[in-house]
Predict the 3D structure of the following.
Amino acid sequence: MSRKKIIAGNWKMNTTVEEAAALAKDVAAVVGSVSDVDVAVCPPYVNLMAVAEAIKGSNVKLGAQDVHWEAKGAFTGKVSCAMLKSIGVTYVIIGHSEQRQYFGETNETVNKKTKAALAASLLPIVCVGETLDERNGGKMDAVIDAQVRGGFEGISAADAAKCVVAYEPVWAIGTGVTATSAQANEAHIFIRKILTELFGKETADTIRIQYGGSMKPDNAKELLSMSDVDGGLIGGAALKASDFAGIVQPK
Ligand code: PEP
């Protein structure tokens, strides 16, 4: 089964509007005409419009880092799917481990956000992954199983096929420690097995599973060569266009 790879940059809480526009222009210049890999950048909310302008006319797509599930109303600080859609956002990261760790994200809120995003024709990037304690304590499979089943509860196979899953072991995010390609692939195969149970083999085989956690130009080629690693969600290395390009087209 060949799945088109997808590389997305998660800029997290980095870049002023000027820095974001400049970085997006640089990204568009180096990978804007790539067509055999889907490429997206996910700047902070306030920089989405400037980045949309900077990547206009290129193949780079716009992503957001989170979304709220409600359509509108008294939810101070939150941003809705319709708001993202109205400024040209294509992808939305949901359930990032930093959201889970620091901001009370649960499998239930991931599920609500995923459903809302799909209803608004945004493409969710649903993040899952275990902490080091969970891995060392033999709980990795149970944690990932609950995250995938919880995140996708009540979602149809047709809608699930529009989603991307990002496997991001928490111990590898921003630490410089990368999962080995074998560890990553093993986790991806496990996630695809759960997706197969939920949605059937045909759908599960089409869902792209990205790896995230200290992916860099020098380890991207090996990770991306694995059978079930269908792309990358990139944090630190997405903040420099040349590094990001080295992951989109690894040598
Ligand atoms: C991320 O935050 O999604 C991530 C993978 O970060 P980093 O690449 O910096 O580990």
Summary: The longest strand covers residues 5-10. Strands lie at 5-10, 37-42, 61-64, 91-94, 123-128, 164-167, 208-212, 231-234. The mean pLDDT is 97. Residues 10, 168, 173-174, 212-215, 233-237 surround phosphoenolpyruvate (CB under 6 Å).
